[in-house]
Amino acid sequence: MDTKLKVLVLMLFVLVSAMVFVTVAFTGLTIFEEPEEEDFHFVNINQFQELSLSEEPRESFKYPRFNNNTITYSLSGINDSQKRQRMQDALKELEKEVGEFIFVEVPDYQEADIKILFERRNNLRKIGEANLKLNILNEVSNAEIRMINVVEYCHYHNTETHELLHVFGFEHNSRTIMDPHGDNCYKLTDRGSRKYIEHLQFIYSDGLRGVEHSDIPMYNINELI
Q1: Are 168 and 64 in contact (CB under 8 A)?
Q2: Is residue 168 a part of any domain in this protein?
Q3: Nearest 5°: phi and psi at 92?
């Protein structure tokens, strides 16, 4: 092969090699190109949080209960220190015996979990009444106790305790603290009444303590919503 032909072949080889190198280099650069915007999936954090909170709705409670274990209360319309003390003694005893919640007095009557009103009415023999409302989760959304024409039949806060247990969902039950006749002087710690303590322990410990007494008369949940 003469010299001119060798030079021509060499030049063609160099040219082809250069073209291959440029093609590979260009292809390599395209690997690092920034993807188009449509390839990204943006998440709105606020929307994600809202969805995660609503994905699994809370289950409703089997029995009526307050929505936490710190239960606030407020007293209104009372100037008698002895009557005030009787109500506070009832709150303290229930808190101590159950041991699963605490009562905290707050100054704002409307914001309290339990609103306790003392009043006198003419020609009324009733000595107390209690009302409560539940939300769809069976949580107590409003609880009110009215102490009316209270007469001390016993040297014990049985009327106050009786009305308190009403706002925890308990109905009347003879020969216990929930006996409809307030002059029978039953106590919370009596043998026939201790099941109220055990049942509240069961409810407010989520079944870890106490005893479930399904036979205790309680308000119909559907009527309280």
Answers
A1: yes
A2: yes
A3: -65, -40
Q: Say what the alpha-carbon torsion angle 75, 79, 82, 88 is, to the nearest 10 degrees.
A: 10
Helix-then-strand count for the chain, H and E: 6, 5
Per-residue pLDDT at 60: 72
Distances (CA, A) of 91 to 36, 103, 121: 67, 7, 24
Sheet holding 128-134, edge to edge: 102-105, 70-76, 114-119, 140-148, 128-134
| Predicted confidence (pLDDT) per residue in 156-201, tens digit | 899 899 999 999 999 999 999 999 886 788 999 999 999 999 999 9
45-66 in b/e burial notation, b at 16+ Cβ within 10 A? eeeeeeeeeeeeeeeebebbbb
Q: For residues 146 and 78, what is the distance between their CA atoms, to the nearest angstrom?
A: 11
124-148, pLDDT tens digit by residue?
A: 566 788 998 988 888 999 999 998 8
Contact 113, 173 (CB under 8 A): no
Structure tokens at 23: 């093609």
C-beta of residue 170 within 8 angstroms of C-beta of residue 217: yes
DSSP letter assigned to residue 71: E
Position 120 confidence tier, pLDDT thresholds 50, 70, 90: confident
Domain that holds residue 158: 70-224
Assign residue 182 the CATH number of its domain: 3.40.390.10
> Which pTM value belongs to this model?
0.71
